[in-house]
Amino acid sequence: MAVGIFDSGLGGLTVLDAVHKRLPDLPLVYFGDSAHAPYGVRDAADIFDLTTKSVERMFEEGCDLVILACNTASAAALRRMQESWVPRDKRVLGVFVPLIEALTERQWGDNSPPREVAVKHVALFATPATVASRAFQRELAFRAIGVDVEAQACGGVVDAIEDGDMILAEALVNSHVDALKRKMPHPQAAILGCTHYPLMHDAFQKALGADVKVYSQADLVGESLADYLERHPDKHGTGQGVKYLTTGDPIRVSSRATQFLRREIKFEAA
After folding, report:
1. 70 and 83 within one domain
2. Domain count within the chain
């Protein structure tokens, strides 16, 4: 048994790293569907099919709890999965809610009615599929009122990161921030709505300016998971260490992952 962390590619490693640092004794299985990445340009039906197949494979590995560390999957597939697909003895959680609760300064699990919050102008940077789903705006509306969200679809950034071309990724970040600022010149906060994007945090912050608070998900998800497992200890798992699975070429994916986390990572074929 272990806690599973799923992503369409390597971006979820930012979440895994934060979870591992926060909960070093937690057994983990990471699954990257690199053969089908990126998800952000696919339609909702395709994302649902790919996500459920991957999560089913993680259930087979003994994961009772799976975190969709892929914002696109969380946005396009999670609700449908929870309503009609996830077995009763399993749990699948997304990564939007911890981020929104941090933005709106609500405690984890606070189900009180939506209220006014200090931040009124929020920039959302995400994949085209996440932007199209409007899942972020929907979840935010459950918790806050009067917040203007301007979403920017960041085409190409995930591909550049997966290919290890950080120069291109930074150029694309600058271009997407410029496009966002033409629509919302003075955002108060910015949401990095893709788990690949923390790798470009400094580029986003520089392009946006020091006065814009940039929220990324990895550390927030780590804290939220620690809180969840304290309340649901049966989902902790009894295994050891971290197992890495990929639908892509294990050698190539391992090399990219090692570059990302700056420590040796060895993937196995899923």
Report:
1. yes
2. 2
Active-site residues, by number, are 70, 194
Domain limits at 18?
2-94+218-269
Euclidean distance between CA atoms 70 and 174, whole angstroms: 22
199-256 confidence digits (pLDDT tens)? 899 999 999 999 999 998 887 888 888 888 888 888 776 777 899 999 999 999 999 9
Cα–Cα distances (Å) from 169 to 37, 135, 154, 158, in that order, read 16, 25, 10, 8
Nearest to 9 by CA among 173, 195, 155: 195
* Residues 76 and 38 grouped into a single domain: yes
Q: How far apart are CA 208 and CA 189, in angstroms?
A: 9
33 closest CA partner among 253, 255, 259: 253
Provide, for the chain, the percentages of residues in helix, strand and coil under a 3-state DSSP scheme, each rounded to the nearest 5: 50, 20, 35
pTM of the entire predicted model? 0.86
With a CB cutoff of 8 Å and minimum separation 6, the contacts of 254 are 244, 265, 266, 267
User: Domain check: are 102 and 64 in the same one?
Assistant: no
